[in-house]
Amino acid sequence: MLHLATDADAVRAAVGSAVDTNMPWQEPDEEDHLLAVSGMVEALRPIAQALCDAPVGSTLVRGLDTQQQRHTRVWVEGSEIPATDPPEIRGLDGRAERWYAAVVGQEDRARRELPQDPTFPST
Fold it and tell me: What superkingdom does the record give (predicted)?
């Protein structure tokens, strides 16, 4: 039986840290290499599932608060990139579910078709 933190703030902070430090465009680091070890992802999957199923996990899933969204735009000195207004966030009904299903499908296909080497150039 897995025992998870019951402090929602601690769980959100841990998940936030993982999201904030995720940099998939960079070369694989030590943790990426660890995830490539045979069986590592499958060994971690029950922990991720337990987090999602735990009462504290439900605090991570909630409706999109559009007032808390931020729009970031790259600006390079001397560039002529026009200023833009934040994109309007609307009509998300079903989009998140379709996006999630597509991502899961891509991951399944990659697991079957791509080499397990994390340094494999997949772009």
Answer: Bacteria
Joined tokens for residue 96: 């998140």
69: which residues sit within 8 A by CB, 6+ positions away? 86, 89
What residues does each domain of the chain span? 1-61
Q: Cβ distance 64 to 89 under 8 Å?
A: yes
pLDDT at 6: 65
What is the rounded CA–CA span in Å between residue 86 and residue 72?
Answer: 8
User: Is this prediction's pTM over 0.90?
Assistant: no
pLDDT(39) > 70:
yes
pLDDT, position 62? 65
Helix (H, G, I), strand (E, B) or coil at 8: helix
> What does the alpha-carbon distance between residue 92 and residue 113 come to, in Å, rounded to a whole number?
31
